Amino acid sequence: MLMKSLKWLLWIVLGLITLVVIFLIYITAVDYKPPAQVELQTNSNNTPVTLKQGEPFTVTTFNIGYAGLDRGQDFFMDGGTKSRSRNTEQTEINLNAIIDFLRSNESNLYMLQEVDTNSSRSNRINEYARISRALKQCSDTFAYNYKVPWVPVPITRPMGEVNSGLLSLSQFTSTSHKRYDLPGKESWPVQLFELDRGFIESRFPVSNGKELVTINLHLSAFDKGGTIRKQQLEFLEGYIDQEAQKDNYLVIGGDWNHALPGTDHNKFITKQEWPQWLQPIPESFAPEDFQWAVDPSTPTVRTLDIAYQEGVNFLSVIDGFLVSPNVEIANVTGHDLKFENSDHNPVTATFILK
Prior knowledge:
Radius of gyration: 21 Å
CATH topology of the largest domain: Deoxyribonuclease I, Chain A
Oligomer: single chain
Shape: globular
CATH superfamily of the largest domain: Endonuclease/exonuclease/phosphatase
Number of strands: 18
Order of helices and strands: HEEEHEHEEEEEHEEEEEEEEE
Mean pLDDT: 95
Number of domains: 2
Low-confidence stretches: none
């Protein structure tokens, strides 16, 4: 009887191992491997206008947290237990609130991160399509940076299928949009379930014959030791140096996943310590004459090890812009939305091309 039980146990174990092996083979075979550079399609919904030197324009960056990381949520990668939105109804509430903000904000350019198209975690809602339809005055460009058939963690309620990326929207005439793949990958098999990070480069002709180059980015956060983040910053720094030599206007914005220069987390009340995943941007990053456009008075991210509790969660400023010296920063405003519908707060900046 004992031998028979052991034999059945062995078969069960072998069966489970076989299923895991088959799953890994499948995930490896279909793994999303974006090229180093790829031209992106732009859907034009508007009659674009030419960007004019000397006239102010506004840019908003917002990591929308796939409309699933509202104030009642935590996240397993940050020490919590969850990865999905609570339910379809809550995802709709979050997305509608995010869209209402974007509409009322009326920026000329938007840089959005964590926008899902068909993901288990956001109940299969095409957030890209919904946002683009709502902002009819803008053309839109989308680039994937997270495309996995199935993320099997957390075990109790796995993240599942993920199709997500960056969304750039604009009212201005553009000449090209391109996705640049960022270096730095986790080892196999972890990378199979991780993001393939990149950024969207958009080029806009300016009335004086120059170009405005914008970058919509979302850098890494949770790599141990910060090795991947270091590689990404070095790549970005090389790109910036190259573009700066052309005397173009540069506006680089998004979720940097680093504490940004000119900000101080001690201004925000918290009962938590500095989180292990957060690192400051190195002082040596970017040319000396480049400027950071940030609002140090408004936090843009909260910790996700617990649901949001005002005065408890650690808060920091990791969303904002880096601009070239030929771009004047007229104003920067962080919008304190109390993390009601996303784990981030948006930031809007007004710039003037000198």
